[in-house]
Specification:
heterotrimer, B: about 325 residues, about 70% helix, disordered N terminus, C: about 290 residues, mainly alpha, MetI-like fold, 2 domains, flat
Chain lengths: ~525, ~325, ~290
């Protein structure tokens, strides 16, 4: 037990150290170099007078499987020559592999062993605000960013506000990059035309399309989805396409929304109104009509494979996937299929733009070299040579630029084995991006259409603190996961009664408490924004 | 009075001496245990106090012991769920079925293998029995689906050919305990029977010869020599399994019934699935550790009771 | 001596039939897995599995072998881990098991409980991870995979139970000859333990062979991974590339995810399946234990 006690001490001792000065002092101490800390505390901070005499390695945490083809290392080696010369540092990538990535990402940040400097994050899919509350990131401020990441600091401008909480800036947003990850469903244009549909832009037409397949396409399941993997089915899409609402991010389960004209009032179509009942009834009809498998909730296959093979009439994912992947592949695998895309909110113009923090870069709380980490990030993000090296690799070997400035691959390139996979999704810049030649030709038109209909997500700054309602949130999540798949795939005999039961279960799980807490924090946010 | 004190002192002295001598006399045995003792201290006992995380609101920067103490708050998600009884019951009943049916089948298989004299048959069949152990839970789930699904399932295909109506297995909760138990037995029997088979191989052959000379037939040899010799192995195996009676086989349940199908939950929901569903997006280390503590304490109590009972009947068979 | 024994005949007949049927019941799904791995992805989606391959295809294996050097490296690494881990672990386990079953060892119950207790309680994922990475510095170190599997309470108790069936007279005869406890263990006990060593060694080898969880947690910047984790990554990679979550700008064809799962299972199972028949011969030779007496 003596050894056990010895462990208690270091664990307890690693408290504190969350303020910038402490960490920097520690940094300086460990480097045996007082001048850096001195410069900072004096407030006279510019990148130029940072002491870079000691060579450091900056480790960046990224999501994805570590590539094994040597291309990433080749690109990094080329980059590192430049980093070495400019800031006497080198970049190293630490991958969080896809196997159990949520757990691994959290564990790596929780361990705080100082092995990570830059952390790729996001306020939606990587729960950045929750990580801020858990103390995973180093708080940044204007002076620091201005000094060590001047180009980025200037470019981000007023978007810094989106990353600010309690007076500190917590991460750098990927705000100079446009992408569309709004969801929808892909359907075959050729079959829709046969069915006499000009296009599919609402659920009624989608139903007609599905019915046409049931009636006329032997051996094809209209949407051969896996309910085990896609637990929400079309439910969220139906609600968003029939109501002018937006889901509030960062509150689990994802049932809380705001009305687009009043972002600071929380509500939920899962609790209020008749739309959920309508949806549940519709999906029960669709289930009975065989638009998906009888055992959809236990099927684990992939509707995309089915669609490519011609056995599924649809597949559900977002715009980016349509443009880069499914449309080009369908043109090749099922020539003439003319794959089309019905995005949620197409009819009622309820499309939300991607968050500017759908990708973001933070500095780890335990980083030993936060200054150099910021300097390196600033170079990577703003120096075109470094940017291209990092994101596309070595020109001629990993990629080529066509005459009209598009991204192509050299002869014999195979994406499954030759990919670079540096996975830099935390500071891409439209300015330096190359459009792949393989992209769907109609992409620009689609983006334009989306842009004309879209509105910004209004609550990017909303960092919901769940501390007071943790138990209720767990209970709501359980109720949600118990009822939603069966509602979304029409597996309740009496959908109306099931919705009533679902709502009663939400209430007894503490729905009102959570709603009140969300409202309270929204009020505080509104007050702070003036 | 005086004499009494004297005896006590005397006994104490005697005791002291014996402890010293005992340690000295057993020093080699103690040394032989040292690698294991150190191993378990380093990899198990030192991290163990970290379970304190279940009583904190864990902050990554402050560390486990620097985080705020919140008492039993992290246990509420389990105890206030209204499902704890159903989850506990399902987990325990499934494990009891796995343990007792499993061991019975393993013993039977081991005895049968033992009575088969053809070496080739024995070798081949033993290897074949072992194969399911290598099929991952994901593939087991895939195969179960291929057998039982409504639209294209093998069984429903046969039913349709016979002119019968297909059965919707995935909406009948009642059949799943059987399917899950069969899948578990199928996977573990070959592996588990090795232990018993090896124990049978260790039996003194002269005992059997002697019994044969005395006129015992095959059934009697099994009844009076082979079965009793498997007793201590069976007791160890069962006592060991009882410690984990509240720990479910997540991989098996997750891949066979999943988490989306609410119809099956009354009969198939176990603690691990519940924790998974509840924490899927929350990465809440304190909560999952709290659930683990609940399972551990339950198992600790059960195994102590079972061990005490065994000790009472015959101390030689007790686990500790 | 061997007279007609009708009960024996009945037992044998039933045994042959039951074991035979059970073996077939175990073999068929395995065959389906193997032939599934040699089928085309389309046929698996549309027609499911069958005992023989349909639309023969080696697509899945091509993907698994896309970097043969890494696959072979993983095999080599796993074999090294398994061989070293099994031999060292087996020695330590049997040594502990021997000491713990000695009736004259007064600490045996206390130490047994000390070891058994670890199966009931643990620090849990996060504390263990912190300890392993922050204090033992085992992140990205193969020891993080090698060490934790070396001993398990379950195998120690199993070994202890096997050794118990060896007559105590062997130990006593050694003592009379003046041998120390360690000498007795090494030269008198170990040689009689073949079936036990074979069983425990097999289980230990399997736990090394099937290891992927610690590899997933602790190894991320290595060129070579333990086999099971390596194969796991290939499957995940295929899933990931198809989902293309964060908009990675690569275009990939449809990867054979179902057949790939089966191909990797075949690759992982292949070599270790052959270990078992090899181990089996020790079960037979162990039958002479009784003769060692005295």
């Amino acid at each position: 037990m003596g050894l056990a006690a010895a462990m208690l001490l270091p664990l307890a001792a690693c408290g504190g150290g969350s303020t910038t000065t402490t960490t920097q002092a520690t940094t300086a101490a460990t480097e045996g170099d007082g001048s850096a800390a001195g410069t900072e505390t004096s407030g006279d901070m510019t990148a130029a007078n940072v002491d870079t005499s000691k060579f450091v390695t900056i480790t960046m945490l990224v999501l994805g499987n570590k590539p094994s083809n040597g291309r990433m290392e080749a690109a990094l080696a080329a980059e590192n020559e430049i980093y070495k010369e400019k800031i006497n540092a080198e970049l190293q990538l630490q991958y969080i592999e896809w196997t159990d990535w949520q757990t691994n990402y959290q564990l790596t940040l929780a361990s705080g062993d100082g092995s990570i400097d830059l952390v790729g994050t996001a306020t939606d899919w990587l729960y950045a605000w929750q990580l801020v509350q858990k103390g995973a990131f180093l708080p940044l401020d204007d002076t620091m960013l201005q000094a060590y990441a001047p180009s980025t600091y200037e470019a981000v401008g007023e978007d810094w506000d989106l990353c600010t909480l309690d007076g500190s800036i917590w991460f750098i947003p990927e705000d100079q990059y446009t992408q569309w990850t709004n969801h929808g469903i892909y359907y075959r244009g050729d079959w829709a035309a046969e069915a006499g549909l000009e296009d599919v832009s609402n659920f009624e037409e989608l139903g007609e399309y599905f019915q046409y397949i049931v009636d006329n396409k032997e051996g094809v399941i209209p949407w051969d989805v896996s309910g085990a993997n896609n637990t929400g089915g079309l439910l969220g899409g139906y609600l968003g396409s029939n109501l002018e609402i937006t889901t509030i991010l960062g509150v689990d389960p994802a049932i809380f929304t705001y009305n687009n004209d009043d972002p600071y009032t929380v509500t939920s179509p899962y609790m209020e109104g008749d739309t959920l009942v309508e949806a549940a009834k519709l999906f029960k009809e669709w289930s009975d009509a065989g638009y998906w498998r009888e055992d959809v909730l236990n099927y684990t296959g992939d509707s995309r494979d089915g669609m490519y093979a011609g056995t599924s009439g649809a597949d559900q994912h977002h715009t980016q996937t349509y443009v880069t992947t499914t449309r080009p592949i369908m043109d090749e695998k099922q020539p003439g299929s003319d794959l089309q895309y019905f995005y949620w909110g197409e009819d009622n113009n309820n499309v939300t733009r991607d968050l500017k923090t759908h990708g973001a870069m933070a500095v780890a709380a335990s980083s030993a070299n936060p200054e150099r980490a910021l300097m390196l990030y600033d170079l990577l993000r703003n120096d075109e040579t470094l940017y291209r090296l990092h994101n596309y690799g070595i020109e001629g070997e990993d990629y080529v630029v066509t005459d009209d400035g598009e991204l192509d691959r050299p002869e014999g390139y195979d994406a499954t084995t030759d990919a670079l996979d540096t996975n830099f999704w935390y500071g891409r810049m439209d300015e330096y991006e190359l459009t792949p030649v393989s992209n769907y030709d109609g992409a620009a038109e689609l983006y334009e259409e989306l842009d004309s209909k879209a509105h910004d997500y209004a609550l990017t700054k909303f960092a919901f603190d769940a501390t007071n309602v943790q138990t209720e949130i767990a209970a709501l999540t359980e109720v949600y996961n118990q009822y939603i798949p069966s509602l979304a795939y029409g597996k309740f005999e009496d959908p109306e009664a099931a919705v009533a039961e679902f709502r009663a279960a939400l209430t007894s799980a503490g729905y009102d408490t959570v709603l009140a807490e969300v409202q309270k924090q929204l009020d505080e946010l509104k007050a702070s924004e003036g | 009075m005086r004499t009494k004190t004297k005896t006590v002192t005397l006994q104490l002295n005697v005791h002291k001496v014996t402890l010293g001598t005992k340690l000295l006399r057993n020093r080699t045995l103690i040394l032989m245990c040292m690698p294991a003792i150190i191993f378990f201290i380093v990899f198990n006992y030192i991290p163990m106090p970290g379970a304190y995380i279940a009583f904190t609101d864990f902050n990554y920067n402050k560390g486990i012991f620097g985080s705020r103490f919140v008492g039993f708050k992290n246990f509420e998600f389990l105890f206030n769920s209204g499902k704890l009884w159903q989850l506990t019951r399902n987990t325990v009943l499934y494990n009891l079925a796995f343990i007792f049916l499993g061991n019975a089948l393993q013993v039977i298989i081991a005895l049968m293998l033992n009575s088969i004299l053809s070496k080739t048959f024995r070798k081949v069949s033993q290897t074949l029995l072992f194969l399911p152990y290598f099929i991952s839970a994901v593939l087991v789930g895939f195969m179960v689906y291929a057998l039982f699904n409504y639209d294209y399932g093998f069984i429903n295909g046969v039913l349709k050919n016979l002119g019968q109506d297909p059965i919707s297995f995935y909406s009948k909760a009642g059949v799943w305990p059987v399917i899950i138990i069969v899948a578990n037995l199928w996977q573990s029997t070959g592996y588990g029977s090795i232990v018993y088979f090896a124990a049978l191989c260790g039996i003194d052959q002269s005992l059997i010869e002697a019994a044969r000379i005395d006129g015992a037939n095959g059934a009697q040899v099994i009844r009076y020599i082979l079965l009793p010799s498997l007793k201590s192995t069976a007791i160890i195996l069962i006592l060991f399994s009882l410690g984990g009676i509240m720990k479910g086989n997540f991989g098996l349940f997750y891949n066979i019934v999943g988490t989306a199908n609410a119809n099956l939950q009354p009969m198939t929901d176990i603690i691990e699935l519940y924790v998974y569903r509840t924490l899927i997006n929350q990465f809440n280390f304190p909560y999952s550790t709290a659930a683990g503590l609940y399972q551990s304490i339950f198992g600790f109590i059960i195994v102590n009771i079972a061990n005490a009972v065994v000790r009472k009947i015959d101390p030689e068979y007790a686990l500790f | 001596m061997k007279q007609h024994d009708s009960s024996m005949v009945a037992i044998k007949t039933i045994s042959y039939i039951f074991i035979g049927l059970f073996a077939i019941f175990c073999l068929i799904p395995f065959l389906m897995m193997v032939s599934g791995s040699f089928s085309s992805e389309e046929v698996i989606i549309t027609k499911g599995l069958w005992i023989l391959p349909r639309q023969f295809s080696t697509e899945a294996y091509k993907l698994a072998f896309s970097s043969p050097k890494l696959l072979l490296g993983s095999y080599a690494l796993t074999i090294i881990l398994t061989v070293c881990g099994t031999s060292i672990g087996l020695f330590l386990i049997s040594m502990t098991g021997y000491a713990l079953q000695r009736r004259d060892f007064f600490l045996r119950n206390k130490i047994s409980f000390f070891i058994y207790f670890t199966t009931l309680f643990s620090g849990g994922l996060a504390p263990t991870y912190l300890w392993m990475t922050k204090y033992l510095h085992l992140k990205d170190n193969y020891l993080a995979v090698f060490l934790p599997l070396l001993m398990s309470p379950w195998l120690i108790f199993l070994m202890k139970n096997f050794i118990k069936s060896i007559p105590f007279e062997i130990t006593e005869s050694g003592k009379i000859d003046g041998a120390g406890d360690f000498r007795i263990f090494v030269s008198l006990i170990l040689p009689t333990l073949k079936p036990a060593l074979a069983t425990v060694g097999l289980f230990l080898a399997l736990s090394y062979w099937n290891e992927w969880y610690n590899a997933m947690l602790y190894l991320s910047n290595k060129s070579y991974y333990p086999l099971q984790y390596f194969l796991y990554r290939i499957i995940n990679m295929a899933n990931y590339l198809k989902q293309s979550t964060a908009g990675a700008q690569v275009t990939v064809g449809n990867l054979p995810s179902n057949t790939l799962k089966m191909a990797t299972a075949v690759l992982a199972t292949g070599p270790i399946v052959f270990l078992y028949p090899f181990v089996q011969k020790y079960f037979i030779s162990g039958m002479t234990i009784g003769a060692v007496k005295g």
